[in-house]
């Protein structure tokens, strides 16, 4: 990549951020990358050993020429393309010192599959409301894609959604390689809301699996879930033409509901087995976005007057502490 090419700032140091660093490194653009790592001890380890000690720790990272920071604002100020890649619950803290002017004129990418707690806003909406970023500058990264499979260089697909297709294509050129393909979309809200919802549905699948339900029931659950998702995203953004069976929606739902790497499915499985929310959170080293999303989506569902029994079931179990077995039994009578 030539020196005139854009600088890419990665804000986050979890598994998905680490996977993106691998993609960029394998594409030999590491000297154009600025990486925010929250903990100084992790930054020092990455710089010394070329591995992230906390996430995807077996993956060797090409970071010899990558600029590493513990100050997110420095990364954002210097970058031409800013990729936000923290759990949604921690984004506000990560951007605490950042000013709206720091984002001026930049392509801002949400690689976060969650809703900002206390705001009931997906990341794109939050960026527009709080930082005044025009929707034309925003790109959303969707799936279906697990960081663990990227780290193993398994062939994977990313959906890049933007109102300005050139912005999505520019990001795609940086990420595409022999194991990463990209799909370009204009459906920013649908892709981002779909990514939020599929985490809740994967959590539901995990709960059912933990309770002892089998693949037959999970298949019915997932087929109902995709119809629920379509109802929701079409109510929120009815103007966009979308095919709910496309990879960004159905594909992302399937991989999150069935994969061994799905943290939301794992979290749900623990709940189904009798763990409390708190004990399940303590045992997992990664954030299950579906937990936070459940409460936020519930408010959105009520606002639009939508009938979404799977989302409601998950909410009743997680937040109203209703018995999982009883709630799933009631849900089973509503599935078709």
Automatic annotation (TrEMBL):
Domain of life from the UniProt record: Bacteria
Family classification: Belongs to the NAD-dependent glycerol-3-phosphate dehydrogenase family.
Presence of keyword Amino-acid biosynthesis: no
Keyword annotations: Lipid biosynthesis, Lipid metabolism, NAD, Oxidoreductase, Phospholipid biosynthesis, Phospholipid metabolism
Gene3D superfamilies hit by this protein: N-(1-d-carboxylethyl)-l-norvaline Dehydrogenase, domain 2, NAD(P)-binding Rossmann-like Domain
EC supergroup of this enzyme: oxidoreductase
PANTHER family for this protein: GLYCEROL-3-PHOSPHATE DEHYDROGENASE, GLYCEROL-3-PHOSPHATE DEHYDROGENASE [NAD(+)] 2, CHLOROPLASTIC
Glycerol-3-phosphate dehydrogenase NAD-dependent C-terminal domain residues: 187-324
Enzyme Commission number(s) of this protein: 1.1.1.94
Domain Glycerol-3-phosphate dehydrogenase NAD-dependent N-terminal: 7-165
Pfam family, one: NAD_Gly3P_dh_C
Reaction equations catalysed: sn-glycerol 3-phosphate + NADP(+) = dihydroxyacetone phosphate + NADPH + H(+)
UniProt keyword annotation of Lipid biosynthesis present: yes
Species this protein is from: Sphingobacterium suaedae
Lineage: Bacteria, Pseudomonadati, Bacteroidota, Sphingobacteriia, Sphingobacteriales
Protein name: Glycerol-3-phosphate dehydrogenase
